[in-house]
Design brief:
- It is a single chain.
- The protein is an alpha+beta fold and 171 residues long.
- It is built from seven helices and four strands.
- Strands 1-2-4-3 form a four-stranded antiparallel β-sheet.
- Strand 3 and strand 4 form a beta hairpin.
- The longest helix is centred in the middle third of the chain and has 45 residues.
- The relative contact order is 0.12.
């Protein structure tokens, strides 16, 4: 379980896309970051693949008088391509766990989208119920019954949403 949490922490959500960074990969493999940067620069891939899967970024290093340090945001495909070049037992285990971490994030995001759709459908039903209840006495009586059922449905959706949020936020 600890391994899963470690690898899940390597993957983050950037606008609905699971990504990692060259810094996180260096830490996980016990490598110097400059070695990972060199490995990325020496990858045998097309310029199109590199452009789509490796985004060069900079962060300011306060310890070096504000000097910008390079790092890469890396997609699932880019990480798989890079890591497949690493060797050894640790690399083999990492490859399996890393793929599982990306799949976990993708499944979590999919569950969240499904809950959002369910919530949208609920809002439509609630609006129709409120509108019908405001027109006449029979509608008001029906609204009272529907309100109880809708309240239970909303509670269930909120519980599902809370689970999804817990999965996304827990790292």
């Amino acid at each position: 379980m600890q391994d899963i949490q470690l690898f899940r922490s390597l993957v983050s959500n950037q606008n609905g896309t699971p990504i990692t960074t060259s810094n996180k990969i260096a830490t996980a493999f016990g490598k110097q970051h400059k070695s990972v940067l060199r490995a990325i620069e020496n990858l045998d891939c097309s310029s199109e693949f590199r452009r789509l899967n490796f985004e060069l970024c900079f962060e300011i290093n306060d310890l070096q008088n504000g000097k910008p340090n390079r790092y890469f945001n890396i997609t699932k495909d880019g990480a798989a391509f890079l890591i497949m070049g690493f060797t050894g037992e640790k690399a083999g285990k990492f490859k399996e766990d890393y793929i599982n971490a990306f799949n976990w994030m993708q499944e979590t995001l999919q569950r969240r989208r499904e809950i959002d759709l369910e919530l949208g459908e609920f809002c439509k039903k609630e609006s129709v119920s409120v509108a019908n209840g405001s027109f006449h006495g029979k509608g008001l009586a029906r609204r009272r019954k529907e309100k109880r059922a809708l309240s239970v449905e909303l509670k269930e959706i909120k519980e599902k949403l809370q689970i999804a949020l817990d999965l996304i936020e827990s790292k």
